[in-house]
Amino acid sequence: MPAYKAPLRDIRFVMNELLDYPAHYASLSNGKDADPDTVEAILSECAKLCEEVLAPLNLPGDAEGCRLVDGNVETPKGFKEAYDAVVAGGWQGISHPTEYGGQGLPMSLSVMKAEMMGSANWAFTMYPGLAIGAMNTLMQHGTAAQKALYMPPLVDGRWAGTMCLTEPQCGTDLGQLKARAEPQADGTYAITGTKMFISGGDHDLTENIIHIVLARLPGAPKGTKGISLFLVPKVKVNPDGSLGDANGVSCSAIEHKMGIKASATCVIEFEGSTAYLLAEPNKGLDAMFTFMNSARIGTAVQGVAHAEQSFQGALPYAKERRSMRSLSGKKEPAQEADAIIHHGDVRRMLLTQKAIAEGGRAMLYFAGQYADHMVNGVVEGDQAKFREWDDKLGFLTPILKGFLTELGLEAANLGMQVFGGHGYIREHGMEQIARDARIGTLYEGTTGIQALDLLGRKTLLSTKGKAVRDFSALLLAFGRRHLADPELRPIAWSLLKIAAEWNWLTARLMLAARKDRDVVSTAAFDFLMYSGYATMAYFWGLMAAKAHERLRAGGGPETPEFYRAKIATAEFYFAHLLPRAAGHAASMLAPTRATMQLAPDDFAMV
C-alpha cells in the first residue's frame, strides 16, 4: 500500500500564499482563534494522526471488511482504537460551537482535516464524516432543547450520525419514499420503514448513532412536497442525556461492495422507532439539503484525496521501475534500462494526477472560504450574508462534487496504469484506490444528478445564467490583470477566452431549452465537466501567477524547485487538460435528436 505522507508543503502554499487564509481568518468574527500558529499546530497534528494511525489501517481494513454478527456491525481490527484517537484529539468538533464542546474554529479547517484523513483512509473517514452532516443539520433545524441534548455527545464523538434517504424502491427520486411517521400523544413520532445504502448505519465505534431520516406524515401531499425530516436515535436518550432502551432501529444487512469495504453500508429497519421532528412538517427535503450539501462537499474531498493517494503511490514507483530507454537517449547509462518516469506517456499520467490533486485542493480550499463566510452569517445572525454566500457555494457545490470525483477516479486509474500489471495486484494497494474512488461519482447524487442541479437549478432556472457570469468574472479579471505579462500572457488569453465561451454556451443552452426541454438533460454532463475544467483553469492560473511572483522576488517560504514545479504543472494543465473543454462544448450543443431518437425497445441488440 502506498505510504501516505500529508502534503503539508502544498497545503501551506494554498492556504498561506495563494488564498491568504491568515487574513481571511482575521476577517471572521469566529476566526480570531485561528491564528497562524494554531492553524499550523492543527495541520501538523492532523498529519501525524493520518500518517501514523489511519493510513496503516487502510489496506488491512479493506481486506477484512465489516461483518454483521447477531444484528450488530463489527468494523475491522484497529478501527475502534483509531476512532478513539480521533475523539481524544478533539477532531470531531473542531468547527462546531464551543457551547456544545467544540473548538468553534472556522468550517474550512474541517475541509483540510477531511482531506488528510480521507487520503489516509477514506473508508474510516466516512464514519466521523457522516456525523458532521448530522450536526450541521441539527444546528440549523433543531430546537434549542434538541441541540442541548444531542449536540455535545455528537461534537465530542461519543455518538455518530447518518442520513437515511434511500429506500429499496427509490434513490434519487425521493417522491417515491414510503417510510411513514405516525404522530404520538407525547409529541413524538413513530417511524416505520426500510432504508438502504446507509453509510455508517451501524458500527461498534460509538455508544449511539443519531439517524437523520426522511419519512411521510399521515395525509401528507404526494411526491417530494410531502416529506418531513426526523431525528431518530438508535438508543433512546433520557432527558438527562443518559442512554435508555433500544429504539427499534436495526441493521438487517450490510452491502457487499466493490470498494470502501471497511465502511459499513447498511440496510436499516425502523420498527415504530421513536422520532423527533426537525424543521417544519412536509419541508423535510429542503432541510435535508443542509446534510446533503455537507456530504457533497465531503465527497468532493474524496476526488482530491484519491488523486493525491494514487499520485503518492505512482510517483516513487515511476522513479524506481526501469524499462527500456528514453526515446531522446539514455537517461541512466549506468543502469540496464531507464526509470519509466523518463518516458513521456508516464509523465503525462503523473502530471495529470498532480494537476488534479493540486488543482482540486485549491478549488476545495477556496470553497472553504465561502463556507466560512456562510457560517459567519449564521453566527452573526445576518440572514442576507448567509444567503449571499450560500448561493455562491451552492453554485460551486455540484462542480466540486461531480467534476472532482470524476477526475479523482481518472487519477486513481492512472495510478494503476503507471504500475502496469503490478497495479492490478492487491498487495500494492493501487487497485484498492481505484475501487474506493469509484463510489465517489455515484453516492450523494450521481454525476448526472449534479449536472442537472448545476445546469437546471443553479444556472438556467434560479439565476438565468447569473451564477456563471459572477464566477467567470474572476477569470476575466485575471486575464485582464496579466495580459501584459509575457510569462503569463498565454494563460491570461486562455482564461479570457474560456470565460467568454462559458457565458456564450450558457446563453445558447438557455435559448435552446426554451424550445426543447431535453436539452437540459442531454447537455448537463458536458456543461458540468466544461464548468469544472474552466474553474480549475482559474486556480491553475492563480497558482502559476503566485509562483512567478515568488521566483521574481527571490523566493518565499518554499524552495525555487517547488515554484518551478507549480509553473510546469500549470503549463501542462493548459496544454493537455483544458483542451478537453472544447470537446464538452461541442457535445453540449449537439442536437438532442442524436441522443433521444432511439426507442427504448430498439436499444436491444437481439
Report on this model:
With 606 residues, this protein is an alpha+beta fold. Among the domains are: 8-153, Butyryl-Coa Dehydrogenase, subunit A, domain 1 (Orthogonal Bundle), CATH 1.10.540.10; 160-282, Butyryl-CoA Dehydrogenase, subunit A, domain 2; 451-595, no CATH class. The chain has helices spanning 8-18, 21-26, 36-54, 58-64, 79-88, 108-120, 122-141, 144-155, 284-320, 344-379, 383-419, 430-438, 447-461, 466-482, 489-515, 518-552, 560-577, 580-588, 593-596, and strands at residues 67-69, 72-74, 159-164, 180-183, 189-199, 208-215, 228-233, 235-237, 243-246, 249-254, 265-278. A hairpin with a 2-residue loop joins strand 1 and strand 2. The mean pLDDT is 95.
Which sequence of SSEs, written as H and E, runs from N to C? Answer: HHHHEEHHHHEEEEEEEEEHHHHHHHHHHH
Major sheet details: 7 strands, mixed
What is the name of the CATH architecture of the domain at 8-153? Orthogonal Bundle
Number of helices: 19
First and last CA, distance: 44 Å
Proportion of β residues?
Answer: 5-15%
**CATH class group of the domain at 8-153:** Mainly Alpha
**What characteristic shape results from the CA principal axes?**
globular
List unreliable stretches of 5+ residues.
none
Which fold name is given in CATH as the topology of the domain at 8-153?
Butyryl-Coa Dehydrogenase, subunit A, domain 1
Estimate percent helicity.
55-70%
Radius of gyration: 24 Å
Whole-number mean pLDDT: 95
Strand segment tally: 11
CATH homologous superfamily assignment of the domain at 8-153: Acyl-CoA dehydrogenase/oxidase, N-terminal domain
Structural class: alpha+beta
